[in-house]
TrEMBL record:
Summary of the function given for this chain in its UniProt record: Functions as an RNA ligase, in vitro. The ligation reaction entails three nucleotidyl transfer steps. In the first step, the RNA ligase reacts with ATP in the absence of nucleic acid to form a covalent ligase-AMP intermediate and release pyrophosphate. In step 2, the ligase-AMP binds to the nucleic acid and transfers the adenylate to the 5'-PO4 terminus to form an adenylylated intermediate. In step 3, the RNA ligase directs the attack of the 3'-OH on the 5'-phosphoanhydride linkage, resulting in a repaired 3'-5' phosphodiester and release of AMP.
Name listed for the protein in its UniProt record: RNA ligase 1
Transmembrane spans: none
GO biological processes: response to reactive oxygen species; RNA repair
This protein's UniProt keywords: ATP-binding, Ligase, Nucleotide-binding, RNA repair
Cited Pfam families: RLIG1 (PF17720)
Coiled coil: none
UniProt-recorded Gene Ontology molecular function terms: ATP binding; RNA ligase (ATP) activity
InterPro entries found in the cross-reference section: RLIG1 (IPR041211)
Cofactor(s) demanded: Mn(2+); Mg(2+)
Reaction(s) catalysed by this chain's protein: ATP + (ribonucleotide)n-3'-hydroxyl + 5'-phospho-(ribonucleotide)m = (ribonucleotide)n+m + AMP + diphosphate
Length: 322
């Protein structure tokens, strides 16, 4: 499986963006939306985006695998955000100056508390020993997923720390279209970021599982290639998302040769998401847990439910059921 860029920071849009004073299609209660212009972002041009490797942008929640207390753990995304007073000052500055630049933060006083185990994401800038916020006023970071924390119960369902494995969705080895549900050692996923998708994440656009039998899995970032992606052109991309069966995705992430990540998603182009059946949810899938599947039957998480399905093939990912 090709290992590509780890997603630790906000990824810039492939086009320069503009802010429209109208209700967001993506974020409830947000009274503005960020839309793409037809001008390609200089960051994308500098990174030679036309020669980049295009992968599917997945609609879930970002996770990370790293060591915690001497063993490999799954970490959940937790951005440190400003408190109400600081948020008001920040928004006022943003409205007055039409920019986030030159806003002065007091990192010790302006931000909400986070758990002691919280760590800032890679490449977060520091000042006087403190991580400082990005242009959105957030400090990206991670917290370890512990079984005792019910807030992250869906994260917990895809890992077994005793066995040291995670439930992962990845492309099959012997078929371009086939997806494979498997168990991978957390050690093999070290320092990677992944997307948790499933029944109780972001409205479940991929149609996985049900309320009675929720299904979740981790998808390594950069692992689902986009076949025959269109050139980086506003009109061509807009048409591709609406007319091509391969375009039934939330967006594209380009992995450039210099390590830069660039993205586009449907909301940038004023398009709905989801809009009918998704490309990922309609792909065939097989459960391949290998010879160790019997060991997973006693697992506390989803692995025990998948164990009896070892070797079973489904015509669509969204048809997987126990």
């Amino acid at each position: 499986m090709r290992r590509l860029g780890s997603v630790q920071q906000k990824i810039p849009c492939v086009f320069l963006t503009d802010v429209k004073e109208e209700a967001s299609r993506k974020h409830e209660h947000q009274q503005f939306q960020v839309v793409a212009t037809e001008n390609v972002n200089p960051v994308a041009l500098e990174a030679n985006v036309d020669c980049a490797f295009a992968t599917e942008k997945l609609d879930g929640t970002c996770c990370y695998v790293a060591v915690y207390q001497g063993q490999f753990y799954l970490w959940a995304r937790l951005d440190r955000k400003p408190n109400k007073q600081a948020e008001k000052r920040f928004r006022k500055h943003q409205h007055t100056h039409k920019s986030c630049k030159d806003f002065s933060w007091n990192v010790e006083e302006d931000f909400k508390m986070v758990p002691e185990s919280w760590i800032p994401a890679h490449r977060v800038k520091h000042s006087n020993g403190h991580p400082i916020p990005d242009e959105h006023g957030h400090i990206p970071g991670w917290v370890p997923v512990q079984k005792s924390n019910k807030q992250y119960c869906w994260h917990s369902s895809v890992v077994d720390y005793e066995l040291g494995v995670a439930l992962v969705l990845k492309p099959g080895c012997d078929d371009d279209d086939l997806l494979e549900i498997t168990a991978l050692p957390l050690a093999d996923l070290q320092e990677q970021t992944l997307e948790l998708i499933g029944t109780n994440v972001n409205g479940n656009p991929y149609g996985l599982g049900s309320k009675k039998q929720p299904i979740h899995c981790l998808v390594p970032h950069g692992s689902i290639p986009v076949r025959n992606p269109p050139p980086v052109n506003f009109q061509l991309l807009s048409s591709w998302f609406q007319e091509n069966c391969e375009g039934r995705v939330e967006g594209i992430v380009w992995h450039c040769n210099d390590g830069t990540l660039i993205k586009i998603h449907r909301h940038h182009l004023g398009l709905r998401w989801p809009d009918g059946e998704t490309r990922l949810g309609s792909r065939p899938a097989v459960v391949r847990l290998g010879g160790a599947s019997a060991a997973y039957s006693d697992s506390e998480g989803l692995l025990s439910w998948f164990s009896p399905l070892n070797g079973q093939r489904f015509s669509r990912l969204q048809d997987v059921h126990f």
